[in-house]
Amino acid sequence: MERIVGNIRLVEYAILRKHFEVYAFSTYRQGGVSTGAYASLNCTPYVGDDPQCVRQNQEILLNTLPHRPRELVIPWQTHGTDILTVDEDWLVATPERRHHLLQGIDAMITDKPGVCLCVSTADCIPILLYDHVHRVIAAVHAGWRGTVNLLVLRTLRRMHEYYGTEAFDVLACIGPGISWEAFEVGDEVFDAFHKAGYPMHAIATYDPCAKKHHINLPEANAIQMKYFGMHEDFIEDCRICTYRRHEDFFSARRLGAKSGRILSGIMLRG
Fold first, then answer.
1. Residue 235 CA to chain centroid, in angstroms?
2. pTM value?
3. Using CA atoms, how far apart are residues 71 and 125, in angstroms rounded to an integer?
């Protein structure tokens, strides 16, 4: 699915279509004011873009969403496994305290309406989760390190611990990220997935000419969800490869680390 407002295009997710109380999206590159490797709709504040452009891009995005959230919560990701619960303490925290809490966070959960949980990606896999029974949402940044370290599974378990989430309660959206055909890795990454216990026949192939492995990150994350107990019918993969479609979506492998980011967000309408 796609939402188009003027020059702005957003990926939307069909699996949430009947659930009007929640909204999720991922941004395209076009329609903002940033330039160079950040051109043009970069909404992430910590990747080297002009802060004024970032603020303007965020305002453009907020004006595009069908329901304006009270805020975009964008963590400073580090490819780790720390999960932030956005709760009542967060809502009353000072800006300085919030800035501190967002450092080193790669997944967030909340049951608070009006708060848009976001993750920033440019080849990594954004995953948005919705527990439609308990009305709890989560946003997960799953690069290869987060995937090896089972961050999606950790997030689902946190949702279960804090809110009572069960596998059959959850709908999942896998956003734009690098495809297995494009995600070429060395032996060390392959070995990390193997040691983590993944079924390598299901997520990896080998290119004998390039002498490189290819890893299917979306499928590896879907395997974590199935391990939690989710059925594949409740997992939607948008199947957009950021590397192959770098003109529409930011790709760090194409543009370098100092470049723009896709913003994927989910919020409960309040």
1. 14
2. 0.98
3. 23
